[in-house]
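Final report, results section. Input specification for complex C-07:
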Amino acid sequence: MSLVEGRESRGPMDAELAYLSVAEMSALIQRKTVSPVEVVKAILSRVDALDTYLNSYITVCADTALAEAEQAEGEIAKGAYRGPLHGIPISHKDISLTQGVHTTAHSRVLLDFIPTEDATHVSRLKGSGMILLGKTNLTEFACGAMELFGLPRNPWNLEYYAGGSSGGSASALAAGLAVAATGTDTGGSIRVPASWCGIVGLRPTFGRVSRYGVLPLSWSMDQVGPMARTVADCALLMSVMAGYDPRDPTSATGPVPNFTSSLDKGLHGLVLGVPQNYFLEGLDPNVETAFRETLRTFEGLGAEIEPVNVPHACDLRPVWEVILTVEAFAEHAATLRRHYSDYGTKTRRRLASGAFYTAADYQHALRIRALWIQDVRSALSSVDALLTPTVPTTAFTVKAQLDVPPDCGQFTRPFSLSGNPALSLPCGFSEDGLPIGLQIVGRPFDENLIFQVGTGYEMATTWHERRAPLEGHN
Amino acid sequence: MEILLDWLRRESASVGLSLDEADLSAIAEIVDGVKRALAKIQFSEADGIAIPYGFDVFADRNGSSRNVTLQRFRPPRPPG
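Structure output:
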């Protein structure tokens, strides 16, 4: 059955609308050139035609999205325009609570769970007039397998995995099945799929965005962030998502800046650090070539590239894994005891492993983490931001992901441990047409500088304008 | 690994998990691998982080752990 009853897909015309950036769409909606209803119908048509192949959504809210679009259209017609996100559809990772809409976390444990309230970021984006389009696919509880609904495919090549854990959001954005999305990032779950699908994703500073209403994994590392097709769109979403929330005691009480204010400041005079150890090791040749070319582009734009030393940079996976699983077990212990067999095999074993590390293991991990935080702070004291590839490789095949998934978080986990803000944006393509991501890491609460650097690079390149070759499937 | 597996068998009950042998073996493999990898990450400066707080280091500096315990946790004397 069609998601959009009584309406034929207009193919290319729907694609033109669906691939608009939030900023472009917003301008058209404000001028009443395009209505939110047209936008929602165009995207739903594409979901209807393409998500069979992509598997990017777990739940599509077709009826309510159309109703919300009609309401937004009416409000805007009456002059009650709420701002640049009014009438724009958004897709949330299916780990964020959405009032009245299934929230499964891709788990049998929550198969029938319909929350009675929204997560704070969902509520804030709704308040800005955004329309809930659907809930996107993820690994089970953002840390396990995808046994229940299958895994999201990469729109650039359907034999490849979109990445995890926020892979559904990234896949939907790259395929024009979403205009804006949210994800969560504990070790790279926004940045890795953003890199592999050729879109933009921000892990904000720890504490910048409330985590209330996000099913927890790691108390000290989980973070919620925006995902979109341009840096400016991420900045627009952050302007609404960020800020103190009394329901999340880890959210920061400091002022929230205007995240769009620095987008057009350019790169002249900025000093960008490139770690010389670890973050340049084991790179796929395509990634290495793209990264070197990216550095030359930055120099051409007036930025100074500065080699920096991060003496303790190394594979911090065991440090991250101990902290993650100990904290995840603490969150899941009661549910694991009651519903152990409802969890996927891989998920339950990983979560249960957290019960068997000792206090000494956890403290050792925290000490290494403290030292690493000093390293990152020191490196960022002499430069404005750090640049690294987001992932050492392009996307893995679906087969590799299902067999024994290779590691892909070598360069993202270190900044989850340190709590710094980090953005991934497209910086090239491999010879076989798969996207490559650049990671920009900033000082705590300096997302504005990351957005400035990202926009400066984005405006000088066209990687973000490429579209995944999906139209043959339409 | 066998020792770890036995320990997991005993401890799993104490944390309230009913794990079968397949789960126990898989978890033992995960925990063993992570612990070994974690043990390899030894930065000398990481010990330095512990100096003001690490009980053993503090105890060595003051002669014996018993004295340290007394010094650190002796209740305040009443005035006069």
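Residues 50-76 of chain B have pLDDT under 50 and may be disordered. The helical segments of chain B are 2-14, 21-40, 44-50, 55-61, 65-73. This concludes the modelling results for the funded period.
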